[in-house]
Amino acid sequence: MRTLRVAIAGLTACSGCQLSLLNCEDELPGLLELFEFQFFPMASSPALLTGEYDAALVEGCLSMPLEKELVQELRRRSRYLVALGTCAVCGGVAALRNGEERELLRQQVYGHSPVAGETYDPIPLRDVVPVDASVTGCPPEKEELLRVLAGLARGALPVGIDYPVCTECRMRENLCLLTERGALCLGPLTLGGCGARCPSMSVPCEGCRGPVPEANLSETLKIYGQKGYDRITVSGRLRRFCPEWEK
Amino acid sequence: MSSLSKIPILTRVEGHGSVELIRDGGKVVDARLDLHESPRLFEALVVGRRFDEIPDITCRICSICSTVHKVAALQAVELALGVHVSRQTGLLRELAVQGGQIESHALHIFCLALPDYLGVNGIQELAHREPEKLQMGLRIKKLGNLIQEIIGGRAIHPFNLLVGGLGKVPEAGPMQSLGKQLLALRDDVTTSITYIMGLNAILPPLPMLPACSVTGGPPLFGDSLTTSTGLAIPAGCAADWLNEQVELHTHAKVSRFSGTIPFMVGPLARLVLTMPEKYSHYFRSTTIRSSLTARIIELQQAVERAQALIGLLLDGGLKKETPVMALPREGEGTSLIEAPRGVLLHSYRFDQQGICCAADIITPTAINQGAIAASLKGLVAAMDGAEYEQIRNAAEILVRSYDPCISCAVH
């Protein structure tokens, strides 16, 4: 089998999606044989884009001009472009105050100095280039990441998940944190694939994987209301990882 | 005539930075670090959020350091609200932080730095050249992650660590198995130490810098700063002493201390300040040239401490506990902790409803900017007359030897 050329890049983010790949300690030696990670500044030198790529995996949202240039360049050179992680897919935690005056937020940190004045409200990859596949999660699950790489090796990207965290939580026969304990659990609205990691340890889902397609927002808001959570509280939680929830 | 050359993208480090080399004629006369990563403005993001949301948000500052950010934030929030956690919770947090230390050091030593010593480009060539060494490093790294997973629920952004306690206390079974696996790791750690200590230094002699670390608690924990110049600074005064300033060439604030020589933080600084007798002979000098040696020693210390903590936890019986109730109140809390790369400070202020009204986060790589700048100047002086390419390579290796975490620095 031909070695696939892959580029792995990080934008505005915590490097957690790239680290998730480096955290595949058992699989990494095998992956390094199957794939040529030609551009992977976090783990390889130098950071030079050359030739074309079978795929580019991009972590993070965009919030400064240079990032747009890099993403467009990666798009031009790559057959597939994969959005890696919640920041790349829907903006992520850096975007949680999008919609407010960024200059005021910037001044809270830097005062009246012009430092970082050229940066803008974080936006997801799809606002800038066409995206072929998405792996969501903050961080993404290792298995999902490996499934995408395995798919690339076979020449077909895996089909995305379309059910909520709740489905997986029920399959694990967990006590429902929302209905039984009245916790603000975002499981009903959040895209599954994590195996209900947090609720399985009695920690309410914080929505780190972003919205599930066709989420029943109005019905779920009613349940949250019955449990004593007003619209502002719920909305604040939903926006923690995805600013576009209410659109 | 002076001109500017650039290492535009630093590689094999976390985050985005560059180094500018200033040339006069053909000669490099100065070098400058530029952390140009885009700020996510975390200190502004958390304002308006309730106290229990803060640790979940600020742990996202960095993936490699997410556990220690989470614990730092939890401790600051609990100080502000007057919450006292159980001894078991304290031990579990400490173990999780040691797990992060093991993972981070193994990542740096075996995946990011080792290629410099072997003259290869990174993990890909390393996998061909020294597959056993890479796999040995990955085995150690994996166990660091496993510790974080068992306690935090996940290796990156651990969700099971909450204000007041844990969502679910790990059971004895997985903890015993972890203890056995750490014991079995001993050979790998011993082999690693011999191997890493045997590598030839790749940087020229560099100036020594004063060191600063957290003290006053178990390893990596504490409530004040201590320095090799004899200062003792309580947590509440630490931000003033670190004296962060906004500077034009970097998106990370720069610690100016009292305006004199910069202090270094991190593994080497910690060892300089607490050097156990049995290791002192490994350090002919304590300049940043010895950073890899310091990291591998700390890795061994972390494995040993993790084993001891597991013993303490198992002796205590690992009881089921629910988190201590935290009630909103007006208050302010500042915590200090040692992240893998050095001193980390989280500070928050809350109003009567427990809503965050101010935040200040000071990270090791931000603090180290002054030390890196001083080391770069030292490097340029030490390599006077060398070819541009040689200086350029050495400058990147030098910056990497501080293991910068730029997402942390800029946050």
Description:
- The complex is a heterodimer of chains A (247) and B (411).
- By secondary structure, chain A is α/β, with parallel strands linked by helices.
- Chain A contains nine helices and five strands; from the N terminus they run E-H-H-E-E-H-E-H-H-E-H-H-H-H.
- Chain A has two domains: 4-154, 3-Layer(aba) Sandwich (Rossmann fold), CATH 3.40.50; 165-238, no CATH class.
- In chain A, strands 2-1-3-4-5 form a five-stranded parallel sheet, with helices on both faces.
- The mean pLDDT of chain A is 96.
- With 411 residues, chain B is α+β, with helices and mostly antiparallel strands.
- Chain B has one domain (2-410): Orthogonal Bundle (Cytochrome-c3 Hydrogenase, chain B).
- In chain B, the strands form four sheets. In chain B, strands 6, 7, 8, 11, 12 and 13 form a six-stranded antiparallel sheet that branches.
- In chain B, a hairpin with a 2-residue loop joins strand 11 (331-339) and strand 12 (342-350).
- In chain B, helix 7 (172-184) packs antiparallel against helix 12 (291-316).
- The model of chain B has no long low-confidence stretch (mean pLDDT 95).
- Chains A and B meet through helix 1, helix 2 and helix 5 of A and helix 1, helix 4, helix 5 and helix 6 of B.
